[in-house]
Amino acid sequence: MKTINIPKLKEIVGENNVKDNPADLFIYGSDASVHRAMPWVVVRPENVEQVQGLMKFADEEQIPVITRGSGSGMCGQTVPSQGGITLDMKGMNRILEINPPDVYCRVEPGVVDDDLNLALKPYGVFYPPTPASSRTATIGGEIGNNASGVRSVKYGATRDSLLGMKVVLPGGKLITLGTRTRVEATGYQIHKLIVGSEGTLGVVVEATLKFVPIPKFRCLGMANFDRLEDAGHAIADIMAGGIVPSMLELVDNVAIKAVNKTMNLGLPDVEAVLLYEADGMVKEAVDYEIDTMKNMCAKHNGTGLQSSYDAKERAKIFMGRKKLFPALSKFSELHASTSLADDMAVPYSKMAEMARKIHDVAKRNNIIMTAYGHCGSGCMHTKILMETSHQDQWESARKAVTEIYEYVRSVNGTTSAEHGIGLSKAAAFKAEKADSLELMRAIKKAFDPNNILNPGKLMDAPDDWVTATDLRYIVES
Amino acid sequence: MQKRKFELNHLLKWRNTLDKCIRCGYCYEHCPVFKHTRWETDAPRAKLIMLYGLLSCQLEPSKYMADKIFSCFNCQQCISACSSGVPLTEIFTDARADFVNTEFDTTGTTSVTGSGCGNCLTCVRACPHDARYFKDGHIVTDSIMCQSCGICTSLCPNQSVSSTHTYGTDRVYLNRLITDFLQKQEAKVIVFGCNWSYYPDLQSSSYETESSSYIPIYEKPDPEYKILITMCGGRLTMPLLLDPFLENGWGVLVACCPEGECENDGNLTSAKRVKKLKPILTSLDIDPDRLELVNIAHGDKAGFQKAIDNFMDKIKTLGPLVDERSMNQQIRNTKYSTD
User: Fold this and answer.
1) Given an 8 Å threshold on Cβ–Cβ distance, is A27 in contact with B40?
2) Which end of chain B is more exposed for a tag (fewer CB within 10 A), N or C?
3) What gap in Å lies between CA B313 and CA A261, rounded to an integer?
4) Chain A residues with CB-CB distance to B19 below 8 A
């Protein structure tokens, strides 16, 4: 561990914006992943000038800097695996401008997603990339991960909503990237490159985001399938059927059982449930899209077809999906729900096969896994439920993760749909992007010659995620 | 105090439960302490991580850690919000028990008795959680039982009961907010809400930074009234309820939980104070209708807004306070009992 000049840091950001008590460092060493490693100090800048000062200091001293929003990432992106300064951006949480005529807003990185949407609501618009963690996730973190969410099938991910940004580079230089216009063909779109870079290229201190009108009509439907494959075929048909759903979610049998067991929701004990939604300004158009999706589901043996425009009814239909997270956590006294093999994307035609693969892998490795996700975007999620204190369970998890990502690669899928790479998925990422890794390293060097920004992540992360850092669980040998 | 070895007698049973926390961070927005400091280390999730550090022997116990564990208003909003069903405040209570058995016993948001205590036992009788008692000639707090409701701090006739950490709930802090707000041209009314009746909109910034960075600029509060959250309505002292009138406020609205819905019976305490203050206001030539108490159920924002709108209509009919200087003088000279 390098000695850090704490008085200097306090000089830059103020006495009250620096924490170095071991308890604080321990807390900031975790996120929602399985990893754990302590930073050397935590600082909370309040403005751009302070970030510039910090980056100048860190670059001169060659101290790692890990930018952090709310720490809700699932792959260890903000776990300081090589120590250094954790830059807590929650101190910069102002919404700087809402500009309805030009259809954009400017925000600081610490603004929470839901807070932004609360502010946009009076203007009749919303910022679409809303991950499940939107109540706590910050815009800065969402940029780092290229977050998306349930409605990404229609509205896209963070990268699609980002017009421009201001970034502080190592050394403290502030640059302005992108534009405030809808289109731009002016050289490299570097701001798009920053999205999904997981804090390895620069510190985003301002983002210019576009927003879209809140639809007047929203209708949610549900269909049950006795065979997972039928649900998979329905997904593929819907997405190729000339319509754009605003949401298309798959919930598998393990998830249904978990929800029924813990919440007593009385969902049908089928292999899969599809939730489909359409929205728009004209009811007839929404009706058309919903009817199309209903017909696709019926064609592939979907039963129990129902749909509703009513907000309360929609909430009731969506309850099973919404309560999935807590249901998995409470599924068994012995098992904890871990963020492993947590996300991936595969072509639509492979969704059902992917879900089946997850079940097979789980069974073979004596762990519990579920398959669910925003299948309208080709996005699949899972969680590994295991007895975290047992060493052999981690070995099983290691095998399961490897097998799953080998399958993803074999069907031309991708390692991460929306959760990022961090530490947990580095091996699969490196295998998938083998021929572009050197180019990525060159880009990283151009931005960050001293390698101070989130070092040891993405292409530089260790292949073995189990030993990449300490695990956040107590594992008995 | 004799130094004793830190033992995890109470915490140990939560070892597996700590693994259940998926660290989603959904508890952040529900925690009054986090909302006040905006430090992740003060959020409920952070407390669990810290306790995990203790249980796994990766952290040495310290007064700093104890202080964090004792800094909790026990509002239990984090439990309601928890994705994984982790009983956070139960775990914190057990952690407190382990800390009090060592030299790391501390106070946090729990009540402490100052040197001016006259041993009148008012606080002992009033404590809804049986956390205060008389021992060896002094009134002391059982810091495990204490739920930081603040009822005792508002009752003490000598103002000798206080909390070490208040996180924006003490009179000095609130008075500064009141003063600042009522100096504005259009400002008329102060609305006091409790953390439960108007949850979850506890003022989310520290006083020093409110006008600069932490309050997002989109928050354009109504210029005619300001909502201040005080955790439990029972914390509202009579002086605090009169403070807005000292600053020429046109009226004060108090929102508490409905009868039978307050674990601390703070709504009853508050209702008694409002009732007692009305004749005092009359004696000061202030229309008693300028002070009103309403009962708002947990999370009923629509009901709360309606109550505010109705009160504002009434206050505007009553108009501004007249002869302000002389009236303020009278208020300052008035002696009021504490309960």
Assistant:
1) yes
2) N
3) 51
4) 336, 388-389, 473-474
DSSP per-residue string spanning A375-423: GGGTEEE--EEE-TTBHHHHHHHHHHHHHHHHHHHHTT-BS-SSS--TT
Q: At B257, phi and psi to the nearest 5?
A: -70, 155
Residue B219 — pLDDT band, cuts 50, 70, 90? very low
CB A290 within 8 A of CB A283: no
A19 in contact with B at a CB cutoff of 8 Å? yes
Which stretch of DSSP H or E encloses residue A244?
none
- pLDDT tens by residue, A365-388: 999 999 998 999 999 999 999 999
Structure-token match 């206080």, residue found: B162
The predicted complex's ipTM stands at 0.93
Domains A217-327 and A329-471 share a fold: yes
Chain Cα centroid distance, residue B101 = 27
Q: Are B189 and B243 in contact (CB under 8 A)?
A: no
Q: Which residues of B touch A472 (CB under 8 A)?
A: 23, 52
The encoded tokens of residue B240 equal 């605090």
| Residue B271: DSSP 8-state | H
Which one of 3.30.450.40, 3.40.50.2300, 3.20.20.60, 3.30.70.2190 gives the CATH number of domain A217-327? Answer: 3.30.70.2190
Q: Which of A15, A27, A42 would you mutate first to test chain B, the one with the most B CBs within 10 A?
A: A27
Which residue does chain A place closest to B69, by CA atoms? Answer: A23
Residue A436 has pLDDT above 90, yes or no: yes
Q: In one letter, which amino acid is A184?
A: E
Which H/E stretch holds residue A5? none
CA distance B36 to A18: 17
Tens digits of per-residue pLDDT, B84-94?
889 999 999 99
